[in-house]
Specification:
32% strand, 276 residues, alpha/beta, five-stranded antiparallel β-sheet, 12 strands, 9 helices, globular, homodimer
């Protein structure tokens, strides 16, 4: 018998994955959590029946959301990751030799637990001595802390369910207060095809709060429409210009790709360049 | 009742589209031809149950496959389009004011007939006085003609069915003979995720046959994996450097995007840069 998992990406568009094995399923305090092995793209973490990450293409999302902001900073030491309980963003942040502290704020402890068991190549760095885990709401964590970070990475799931507050203006105002001088933030801002209003709103908020900002693109096959956006805000450097080059191997990110990824097709430019 | 059309994109991955209306269906001499109206992306042309083009995102494919090579040429006058019976590539070629002759070679006359009726915004330019239609096999047409063109656009469907020959080395050798000085060719070369061997082969063939060549990328949501590649060969100019700027409105292509689209992520670079 063939088992297929169907992901509804819009009212009129669905993706179907052949499931080789159902590895784990539970109802957490926040969401439905599932780990499956897909015939295409391998093991995958699902939240509320939406694919969050797969071992086959996770490198694209995690390299882009981490290296884009970190290479804009001259020497990032302290990194805050909000969301991202799978550990992929933490893993990439730790590859920067200047980084000596990574705080991960994940609301759902069960996501981290499942990733540790089923997605060790993504979650493996969570045991690094430089990492501190905080199981709490990202919005509350940022509002209550008095610490600062060189880079904040908002690795939120879709803007429905527990992550909805992480796309709000109020949240980004709080994050802005927690940045050290030369600080930089990066947030995923959805598909320019399926989440146009979200992208417009996030790009507008970040442009208002930071002296320099920009949106870049990556192609992520397991995400709706394939095209995904990341929005970067910076207190000093131009987000489209990396100041340093990786001294480690990457599969999607490169300094040249960093620069090119901020060149937007005209149909997206008008979304992300609000008239002031 | 909801009617869904399922497109199998690989053995373990399918896309499902909600169909608002079935507009046309026939078995031609070459393939199954269907026109539907999809809830997402609008009217669509299908060949052998694979989406070829939709009114919602066709501009991405057609702008990239035409403007990328044409803006590398200093003043293209004669353009040959092989495949592309929907007329989208012809429409974009005619927007260049220097172009005074476009030859379209489509093996299946019924594709053109259906596009004229059901996709007039794509096929409308086929009645332009500068256009000549040739209903024959592209491989044979190129082998038998003694004419030359400034740009040849290989707008083939998938490398299965009638289009298989249009990806071969023999075909590209014939095309090379039909180029005027400073001539340029562009062919679609598939998804870097789902058609890796095809991309490697096409990029290698074009690199061998032309003094300058390169592969660029675009994100096309209705194509498998979203990420799509185009390979350009040129007798003179660097394919990644446009020599002119559009004096007409575009939605996806721009001169800046042209340059950026040739920056490939590392995982693709090793496919398209064969060691010689």
């Amino acid at each position: 018998m063939s088992i297929w998992f169907t992901e509804r990406q819009s009212d009129g568009y669905e993706v179907r994955w052949l499931v080789k094995r159902l590895l784990h399923q539970e109802r957490t305090a926040y969401q439905q959590l599932t780990v499956v092995e897909l015939a295409e793209f391998g093991r995958a973490l699902l939240l509320d029946d939406i694919v969050q990450t797969t071992v086959g293409d996770e490198y694209i999302y995690h390299e882009m959301i981490v290296h884009t902001p970190l290479f804009v900073h001259p020497a990032p030491r302290r990194v805050l990751v909000i969301g991202g309980g799978d550990g992929g963003a933490v893993r990439e942040a730790l590859r920067h030799p200047t980084v000596d502290a990574v705080d991960l704020v994940e609301i759902d402890e069960r996501v981290v637990a499942a990733a540790r068991v089923w997605l060790p190549e993504i979650a493996g760095s969570l045991d690094d001595r430089r990492v501190r885990l905080h199981y709490t709401d990202g919005f509350r964590f940022v509002a209550e802390t008095d610490q600062t970070w060189d880079a904040v990475i908002v690795d939120a799931s879709d803007p429905i369910g527990p992550a909805v507050g992480l796309f709000s203006r109020e949240f980004h105002q709080q994050v802005r207060q927690r940045l050290a001088p030369e600080g930089v933030i990066c947030t995923q801002s959805g598909s320019p095809f399926f989440n146009r209003e979200l992208l417009r709103q996030v790009a507008g908020t970040v442009a208002e709060l930071y002296p320099q900002s920009g949106t870049c693109l990556a192609c992520i096959p397991t995400y709706p429409s394939g095209l995904w956006s990341f929005t970067v805000g910076s207190l000093r450097g131009d987000p489209s210009q990396p100041r340093r080059r990786p001294d480690f191997t990457t599969r999607y990110y490169s300094s040249d790709y960093h620069r090119s990824s901020f060149t937007l097709p005209p149909f997206i430019t008008h979304l992300t360049s609000p008239t002031r």
